[in-house]
């Protein structure tokens, strides 16, 4: 018997009635979301059972979500928690018509002035995703001071993607909303819901298209970048018709195409801007995590089991195996020149080690021991160091600083002992490193990238990623694109 069906007082209809009475007004009668986020098994995957218990009882600070402790019996709350993790009786769907109907245009293309409304250098702005109360903060990178703060949709994930001139930025929420902001006018331009569970977005280098990758439904969604109107829905399926979730979609600017990584079928899709028709590259294994070399000729991929391979996108086939151990987080990889050769390094989600790979031979040339499994690695062309975290370990409060030539750990910073610090992004000139203190009463902590001295801290609500316009739009080899 499922956990939510506890006999006569806990039948499906009781739980469903409880949902309708207490939750539906914010989360939608169909559980697809409304003022509150969607409550589908896919949306709740990342919420641990204890966190769910706490949320239902005590609500979520700084949001409209109330606590139901004392209002509903404990057993009812437990049944609701279990029921929410089961699929709805009617399978949720999100078709082209739903996408079109969801779109809101706040400012029509061309209606806002073509110059910044602030004095700061628009190419040295940072965007900070504050996941605590779902905000995007805009920082002036020269003064390292906030200039604006937007409320966002629920749970942004993946890097914000900038137009080439840095004026527009596109973000996706895990709930399927794609939002476009005009950074020069500090304005939300348009929003559209492309799916019920979305991985990320990519923006074409020519500025015309936005592609979103979904896990629910199993689609890629192409939008016109100017007003987020729907151009095309691609059902994602293999030759045998089996549908696949999208792991992520990327813009491969040097190839003038989008590349989509698929989670359930061993293939990669390349969608050139010129044709917008998918080219399917068959693989031996499903790849879940990806790194592209700077020309976007090769993909370094890893399966969740850790096996790695190099795919030549021109040849459309595997050209080498990668000797990887643990669970490398290739998506957070960076490259640099070392002794006349290009090397790539990525953190590891399971091991306290960074693998350094020669980008010509694909051999692992070094393994750098670190404080523990980490998530992000960052550098900049103008700094000799790479910064990594150990946020998946007890040493999650400390970032280590690695010399890119000797590969030795040469320093560390601990912004706040005992509290999680991760994700670094440099200012445009590489002089300062901004670190996220990822706590509800957290901060962006600014370090001098040469002396490792703290310069200042800006209070933020659980800041996760931060993104510098110049480094992103010039596709710096020290950061993600
Ligand atoms: Fe992420 C980017 C996948 C969990 C914070 N994450 C990405 C990207 C992928 C990915 C494929 C690249 C997309 C892009 O840049 O557009 N992330 C995954 C997962 O599969 C995983 C492990 C589980 C999941 O359910 O999604 C996962 N990610 C997390 C987190 O728990 C993090 C730490 C907190 C959060 O907000 O969810 C997290 N992911 C991030 C960040 C980026 C990201 C900050 C952007 C990195 C960048 O600097 O560009």
TrEMBL record:
Pfam families: Cytochrom_D1, Cytochrome_CBB3. Residues 10-88 form the Cytochrome c domain. Keywords: Heme, Iron, Metal-binding. One of its GO terms (molecular function) is metal ion binding. The keyword Glycoprotein does not apply. This is Cytochrome C oxidase Cbb3. The lineage of its organism: Bacteria, Pseudomonadati, Pseudomonadota, Betaproteobacteria, Burkholderiales.
């Amino acid at each position: 018997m499922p956990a939510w069906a506890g006999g006569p007082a806990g039948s499906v209809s009781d739980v469903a009635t409880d949902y309708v009475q207490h939750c539906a007004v914010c989360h939608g009668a169909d559980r697809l979301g409304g003022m509150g986020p969607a409550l589908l098994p896919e949306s709740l995957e990342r919420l641990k059972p204890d966190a769910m218990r706490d949320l239902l009882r005590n609500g979520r600070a700084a949001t409209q979500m109330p606590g139901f402790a004392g209002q509903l019996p404990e057993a009812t709350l437990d049944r609701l928690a279990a029921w929410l993790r089961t699929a709805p009786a009617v399978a949720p769907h999100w078709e082209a018509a739903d996408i079109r109907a969801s779109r809101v245009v706040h400012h029509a293309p061309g209606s806002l002035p073509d110059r910044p409304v602030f004095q700061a250098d628009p190419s040295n702005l940072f965007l900070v995703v504050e996941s605590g109360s779902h905000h995007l903060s805009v920082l002036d990178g020269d003064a390292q001071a906030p200039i604006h703060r937007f409320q966002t949709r629920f749970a942004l994930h993946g890097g914000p993607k900038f137009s080439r001139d840095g004026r527009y930025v596109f973000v996706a929420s895990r709930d399927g909303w794609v939002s476009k902001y005009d950074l020069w006018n500090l304005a939300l331009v348009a929003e559209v819901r492309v799916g019920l569970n979305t991985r990320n977005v990519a923006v074409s280098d020519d500025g015309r298209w936005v592609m979103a990758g979904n896990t629910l439904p199993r689609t890629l969604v192409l939008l016109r970048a100017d007003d987020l109107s729907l151009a095309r829905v691609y059902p994602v399926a293999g030759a045998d018709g089996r549908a696949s979730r999208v792991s992520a979609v990327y813009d491969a600017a040097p190839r003038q195409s989008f590349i989509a990584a698929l989670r359930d079928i061993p293939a990669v899709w390349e969608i050139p801007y010129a044709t917008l028709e998918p080219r399917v590259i068959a693989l031996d294994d499903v790849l879940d995590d990806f790194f592209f070399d700077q020309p976007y000729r090769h993909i370094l991929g890893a399966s969740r089991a850790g096996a790695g391979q190099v795919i030549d996108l021109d040849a459309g086939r595997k050209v080498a195996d990668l000797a990887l151990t643990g669970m490398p987080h290739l998506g957070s990889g960076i490259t640099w020149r070392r002794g006349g050769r290009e090397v790539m390094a990525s953190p590891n989600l399971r091991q306290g080690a960074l693998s350094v790979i020669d980008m010509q031979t694909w051999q692992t040339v070094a393994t750098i021991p670190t404080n523990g499994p980490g998530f992000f690695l960052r550098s900049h062309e103008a700094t000799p160091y790479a910064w990594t975290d150990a946020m998946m370990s007890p040493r999650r409060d400390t970032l280590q600083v690695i010399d890119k030539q000797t590969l030795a750990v040469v320093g560390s910073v601990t912004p706040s002992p005992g509290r999680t610090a991760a994700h670094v992004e440099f200012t445009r000139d590489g002089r300062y490193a901004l670190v996220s203190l990822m706590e509800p009463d957290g901060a962006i902590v600014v370090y001098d990238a040469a002396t490792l001295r703290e310069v200042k801290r800006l209070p933020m609500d659980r800041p996760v990623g931060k993104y510098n316009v110049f480094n992103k739009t010039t596709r710096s080899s020290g950061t993600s694109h």
